[in-house]
Amino acid sequence: MDLYEYQGKELFSHFGIPVSEGRLAETPEEALAAADELGGPVVVKAQVLTGGRGKAGGVKLAATPEEAEDLADDILGLDIRGHVVRRLWIESASEIAKEYYLSVTFDRGAKKALFMFTTQGGVEIEEVAETNPDALVRLHVDPLEGFQPWVARRLVYGAGIDDPGEQKQIAAIVEKLYRCFVESDAMLCEINPLIVTPEGEVRALDSKFTVDDNALYRHPDIAEMRDVEAADPLETFAREKGVTYVKLDGEVGILGNGAGLSMSTVDVVAHVGGRPANFCDLGGGGDAEGVVDALEVITRDPQVRSIFFNIFGGITRCDEVARGILAALDRLDMSRYPIVVRLDGTNAEEAREILADAARPNVFPEATMLDGARRAVELARSA
Ligand code: GDP
Ligand code: MN
Fold first, then answer.
1. In sequence order, what are the beta bridge partners of 245?
2. Distance between CA 241 and CA 3 in Å, rounded?
3. Ramachandran region, residue 283 (left: φ > 0; alpha: ψ -120 to 50; beta: rest)
């Protein structure tokens, strides 16, 4: 789960990482009141779950509360890479002498937390990694050893910070960020930029914060931060139905059982030149009801032109899936979708008979995954 900047900063603050004072606003009037309360110049920041807001015109400085109100009016409703701005964070403006970058993320390959620090902050970290890799200090933390003070010192010296005041403040922030990362069950905590003010004060000016969904049950306070309105309505509907569903932007609706098979199906459809419309996993025990639910979700996507069922029966019985498909055809208006069905494994024979007996004009059985994918792609083109 990704957090908004202001939510990430709330957690930063909780762990003692310095941030600027700010207020949330959802209307220009609230922005005016917030700026008035804060006093002095403020920065009006779009709260969207995507980066690069500055470049997209979503971060603006205002000298007066009236200017903040005007800017809020401009920024609210702005579309930043598909994310419409509905919330603003109004923050006391900082004077910036230097912009650094600090993050801690979970490195799955190494099975360890990975710190990255560079004095080349303010720009995308991928850019630094490409153009100036030597400026980026990377350091793992061994989970058994836990955080050790030398980790912070190595990052700070490695990046060439020579001001003792900065060294001390950054080292303290590194340690707090690690605690924040571990205790929040985060997958990523990123501060870009971590600024130094002209007075030499170090502060987090931005936050990018991702929490492991599987650990949310341990953090009801963080789980509550989820903005249901911002979520894709189709994905919200799928969650309500208990269907594992991810929307993609092609035309072939995909249904598999098990995450591995479903992902492979997405790959095979792409491999034969098609564009998957989604990833949908029926799960292990996909019964007829589960199939109906999944089809209801998939057919709510107007981009879907054909549907490809790829089922390998194990715990899932193919005859159940076949009955589910027929039940869905009775209950939902599926006439405009060609449905390619590849069934193999437990009770596959029986399933094929059930489909053959029903003789639905828009159901196309195929024997293999590759043939099924080809057929579904073809049918999506001609549909
Ligand atoms: P992002 O573009 O989504 O990463 O948003 P940021 O929060 O990082 O803001 C983008 C840029 O705006 C920062 O890199 C700063 O250069 C600038 N900025 C943000 N807040 C302030 C501020 O309080 N004062 C000044 N002078 N610049 C700011
Ligand atoms: Mn940023």
1. 280
2. 24
3. left
Q: Tell me how far apart the alpha carbons of residues 263 and 215 are, in angstroms, rounded to a whole number.
A: 23
> What is the pTM (predicted TM-score) of this model?
0.76
Q: Is 41 in the pocket of ligand 1 (CB under 6 A)?
A: no
How does pLDDT run across 120-136, given as a tens digit for each residue? Answer: 998 888 888 888 888 99
What is the C-alpha separation between 319 and 316, in angstroms, rounded?
Answer: 9
CA distance 76 to 219: 30
H or E segment at 150? helix 149-158
Q: How far apart, in whole angstroms, are the C-alpha atoms of residue 380 and residue 375?
A: 9
Q: Which residues contact 56 (CB under 8 A, 6 or more apart)?
A: 46, 78, 80, 81
Name the DSSP letter for residue 276.
B
pLDDT, one tens digit per residue, over 137-166 is: 999 999 999 999 999 999 999 999 999 999
Give the span between the Cα atoms of 32 and 72, in whole angstroms.
Answer: 8
Q: Could you confirm whether 190 is annotated as catalytic?
A: yes
Atom of ligand 1 nearest to the CA of 92: 23
Tell me how far the alpha carbon of residue 232 lies from the centroid of ligand 2, in angstroms.
24
Q: Which tokens belong to 120? A: 């080349």
DSSP state of 308: E
